[in-house]
């Protein structure tokens, strides 16, 4: 009598345990993608906030410097080449060192390990400036054969459609531009590049899929964050910011892509 009562209250049978474990596994399977999607969305928002602060710092800079835009001030060598002169450090000093240099989604290994090359350098910022807005890096335009009508874009009043001109973007985690602090959008395409191949060239400089969708191959759907001269920041798809050399939101003289 006593023994059988003991047997009945022994606890879970093996089958019951397996069922419980199975249910937990299914729940984890359902919840994990939701958790990681929420984390990705959180990263996108944090990154947008980093970039909004940069855009705000840039506006304070413009107002204090009689309309002059912040300049890259360095060669194509990445932040290591002349860290003090990078636009990021100029703005950061200006903003009481409150700017955040790293996007929370940025998984580049070059933050800790120097990029291979003749002058090994580390990645110092997730963010780069549009070379059209830099005095030394600007390709002449439009069409890049003659200077822009009003001269190189160094002052705010030379930009006619401030809300349509990209200023800061997210830099590629790997490749030649991983330690640079600027992109050359005039190399996102050549006059003969087929439009389908353009997202691949964009992804060679920018981390154009920093915030979705997660896929290996570059496409016009890739999304990353950028700021515009008027001070706003947005998550933009490649096809909304760069259609080709003559229709894009990088060259201040070019018409912007229409959806
Ligand atoms: Zn360069
Ligand atoms: Zn980001």
Structure, explained:
By secondary structure, this protein is an alpha+beta fold. It has one domain (12-248). Helices cover 29% and strands 10% of the residues. The protein has helices at residues 2-8, 14-64, 87-94, 198-203, 238-241; strands at 127-130, 166-170, 182-183, 223-228, 233-237, 242-244, 247-248. A 5-stranded mixed sheet has the order 3-1-2-4-5. A hairpin with a 2-residue loop joins strand 6 and strand 7. Helix 2 (14-64) packs across helix 3.
Summarize the structure.
With 259 residues, the protein is of the alpha+beta class. It is built from five helices and seven strands.
Q: What is the element string, with H for helices and E for strands?
A: HHHEEEHEEHEE
Roughly how many Å apart are the termini? Answer: 80 Å
Large-scale geometry: elongated
Low-confidence stretches: none
Taking all Cα atoms into account, the compactness measure Rg is 24 Å
Q: How many structural units, i.e. domains? A: 1
Widest beta sheet: strand line-up: 3-1-2-4-5
Count of DSSP E strands? 7
Helical percentage: 25-40%
Query: What characterizes the major β-sheet?
Result: 5 strands, mixed
Keywords:
259 residues, alpha+beta, two-stranded antiparallel ribbon, 5 helices, binds zinc ion
